[in-house]
Design goal:
The chain is of the alpha/beta class. About 35% of the residues lie in helices and about 15% in strands. The chain contains 17 helices and 13 strands. Helix 6 crosses helix 8. The longest helix has 24 residues, at about 185-210. It is elongated, with a radius of gyration of 25 Å. The two termini are about 25 Å apart. Mean pLDDT is about 90; it is low at about 1-15.
Length: about 400
């Protein structure tokens, strides 16, 4: 185990929320029957905005993402990422008294979220349609793998499986080596879609007083994110082959080697930028005048030749000098970074994006939310231990421990 001894200061120019400001979802109660990534990401976003999130977990094991690895001082990286600002309550739905616990929790909920395996939520009566039928003011969300009404409704769905089924792996990598995107876009995409839908439903409830049953799925989220690629296939019957660290639809737009053994990424999005890149950055007015490169479709057609010209130039300069020259010429550029290099990236460090949250293993690293609201507080409450809040929540609900569905000791 690597012991984390990093402590974070907050620079004077950190993009802080206002200490003591009102969180926009303060007072909202979210009850979530969640595991892995999709639903936990949705509810973490709501928790970051001030909602009280009660995470309902199984006895003994809890959310199986707790055990993906032990790299955060004994805790799992997935779990630490997704579960700050939450309370953990253990409930054994097979135990006597579990129905009373469930009903009491749902009576307190403004929002109910679940991403349990196919059929489990409906068996417990916590699927969105049932929750809203019995409690019309509640906003309830089902996050499934494939949605409902199709041949794959009951198939078990994980991020890689859905990305393979929905085509995103075929858009990644190269033509002869498709790859799964490193970010779990099926899970994260579904979680984002669910969070947006919850906020819209809550806004609607202000006027009508009524909640709504919401459904979203990993498959539909990936299909939506395919975007231009899916439309291209629909209208042409063909696919643009993926080409690694580049764009299949824009040129020049890709990665090039530098003299000091690094990689620079240069990008253009229109003809004017291409003219600046060729004339000012490369010092090649002949390329700017070459009719083979006059438009973006033509540049894409002749990408290998064009990339060879650019690569020959980048090999003569170090990365820092290329980026400085590109900035001066108004050309988009970036340094290619390994993930480990992003940990100390100055764009994170100098803006105070790293903070600490408490956890069962002590303070651990956590990034502030990607949204920044003027006057909103930075909510960085602990990552909960399994069942840490069971006794307190049961007491709040007026439930005794005897005949209990679970207690903290059962965790």
């Amino acid at each position: 185990m690597v012991v984390d001894t990093w402590r974070f200061g907050m620079p004077a120019n950190a993009e802080d929320g206002a200490p003591g400001g009102a969180a926009p979802l303060a007072g909202l109660v979210v009850v979530s029957f969640e595991q892995a990534v999709a639903a936990p990401y949705c509810t973490r976003l709501l928790a970051d905005l001030g909602a009280r999130v009660i995470k309902v977990e199984r006895p003994h094991t809890g959310d199986f993402a707790r055990d993906y690895d032990t790299e955060v001082n004994g805790m799992a990286t997935h779990f630490v990422w997704l579960n700050r600002n939450k309370e953990s309550m253990v409930v054994d739905f097979k135990a006597p008294g579990s129905d009373a616990v469930l009903e009491a929790l749902l009576d307190r909920a403004d929002v109910v979220v679940q991403n349990l395996a196919p059929g489990v939520a409906s068996g417990l009566g916590i699927d969105a349609a049932t929750v809203v039928r019995r409690r019309p003011s509640v906003v309830a969300v089902d996050i499934s793998g494939y949605g409902t009404g199709g041949p794959l409704d009951d198939r078990r769905a994980y991020d890689l499986l859905v990305q393979a089924e929905a085509g995103s792996c075929a858009m990644t990598g190269t033509a002869d080596a498709p790859a799964k995107p490193g970010i779990p876009i099926a899970d994260v995409g579904a979680g984002l879609q669910a969070a947006v839908a919850v906020l819209a439903a809550l806004n609607g409830r202000h006027g009508s007083g009524r909640g709504v049953a919401i459904r979203t799925s990993l498959f539909d989220s990936v299909a939506d994110l395919l975007g231009f690629g899916l439309l291209h296939a629909a209208y042409t019957g063909a696919e643009r082959p993926p080409n690694g660290l580049s764009s299949p639809v824009v040129s020049p737009y890709g990665a090039y080697p530098t003299r000091d053994g690094r990689t620079v990424v240069l990008g253009t999005t229109n003809d004017a930028e291409w003219q600046r890149l060729s004339k000012i950055l490369l010092g090649r007015p002949d390329l700017a005048a070459d009719l083979r490169y006059a438009s973006n479709p033509q540049r894409c057609e002749h990408r290998p030749t064009l990339d060879a010209h650019i690569g020959a130039w980048t090999r003569t300069l170090d990365l820092a000098e290329i980026c400085a020259r590109a900035d001066a010429a108004g050309i988009g550029n970036a340094e290619f970074h390994r993930v480990r290099e992003v940990v100390d990236h100055p764009q994170l460090v100098e803006r105070g994006r790293w903070r600490e949250v408490d956890s069962p293993v002590g303070p651990v690293r956590s990034l502030l939310p990607a949204f920044i609201g003027a006057g909103w507080p930075d909510l960085l409450n602990p990552v909960p231990g399994l069942g840490e809040h069971t006794a307190a929540i049961r007491a709040e609900l007026g439930l005794s421990e005897s005949g209990s569905a679970a207690s903290a000791a059962d965790a």
